[in-house]
Structure formats: structure tokens, C-alpha cells
Amino acid sequence: MVTIPVQAADEKDPSEITEQDLPEERFIQDYIMGPGDVLDISVWKNKDMSRTLTVLPDGKVAFPLIGEVIVAGKTVAQLKTELENRLSPRFILNPVLSVEIRQVNSMLIYIIGKVNHPGRFALNANINVLQALSMAGGLNVFAKRNEIKIFREEGRRTRIFEFRYDDVSYGENLEQNIRLRRGDVIVVP
């Protein structure tokens, strides 16, 4: 559990608080599983039910006795609860499950264009645009530093964020240095 310190009476109205007003810990959320992630699922006192499973591209895994289970888009706690509910009482009376993520493989971002090492990058931490650009070896000399765009799919639409490298590197307009999400594409013209 993350505790956020409360400030004195000069606090802003809660509806006016932005990401920059809160400590970094506020934005660490439970990991949402996705295709490619490897899970260890064990049922206490039942080795035959324990499995190491890879989430398939359709977001599902097959689990003994209950069949296909949708995993993508869920947290570990949500998946654990669902498996316990589907196993009990029909197959196992009061099952005790353990669900662990063995390997994170679904947190991918893509960086294309005029960077030194474009490509697909697997993340194991929450990073921002500037950190991602450093993972790609930085901008090359021909990059249009102030015309960088981040493309994010949200449902059926694509949202585009602008990123002006010079502003952010000089400590200005830092709100452009957004936290990246699974599937984001950074384009450096």
C-alpha cells in the first residue's frame, strides 16, 4: 500500500490536482497482464493443477478443469479471484491459489525514425519519453528534435502526443514527458 502525504491548508482542490502535483508513487498501479507474459499458477496441495503458462496472443490461457481463461487486461489479484471462484466448490473445496508473474513480455513500446537504435523495446519499469529515447541510443544528428510524436491506441482511436525534445531537456514544458504505456509508438522524424 502506498501512502501519500497530506499537505497543509494551502492544498489545491482535488479536482485541480494534476500528475505533477503528486508524488511519483501515486502513479504506480497494479500490473495489468498481457499477451506474452509468463505466469506461475499453483494450487496448494495439488501439484497436478500447478502450471507455468504463457498468455497467448488472444489474451487467454488454458487451465485444467476450467478451460480457457481470459488473462489480458487483469491484475494478478483479479485472475487469482476468478480462478478460485471457477474452481470452487465444483472441483476443489476452498482452493488456495498462488498466481505470480514469472516474466513480463507484454510491456512493449516501439521507437522508429531518426534515433540511433530504433526498434521494439520490452519494458520492466514505468518509463517516460525521455528515458525511452535514451534506450534507443538517443536522437541522431538528422532528427527533427522538436517534432517528435507519441502514438497511443485508446480503444478504437489513436491519440497523438507532441514532444519537443529541446523544451523538455531544458526543463520546460515537462508535461510533454509522459509516462509510456503498453503499445505506445514514438516517431522521431
Overview of the structural elements:
- The chain has helices at 76-87, 129-135, 165-169, and strands at residues 38-43, 46-54, 60-63, 67-70, 97-103, 108-113, 119-122, 148-154, 157-163, 185-188.
- It has 189 residues and is an alpha+beta fold.
- The protein folds into two domains: 38-103, wza like fold, CATH 3.30.1950.10; 108-188, Outer membrane lipoprotein wza domain like (Outer membrane lipoprotein wza fold like).
- β3 (60-63) and β4 (67-70) form a beta hairpin.
- The radius of gyration is 21 Å and the shape is elongated.
List keywords for this structure.
2 domains, disordered N terminus, alpha+beta, 31% strand, 3-stranded antiparallel beta sheet, Outer membrane lipoprotein wza fold like, 189 residues, 13% helix, 5-stranded mixed beta sheet
CATH architecture of the largest domain: Roll
CATH class of the largest domain: Alpha Beta
Derived from helix and strand composition plus strand pairing, the structural class reads alpha+beta
CATH superfamily of the largest domain: Outer membrane lipoprotein wza domain like
- The total count of helices amounts to 3
Order of helices and strands: EEEEHEEEHEEHE
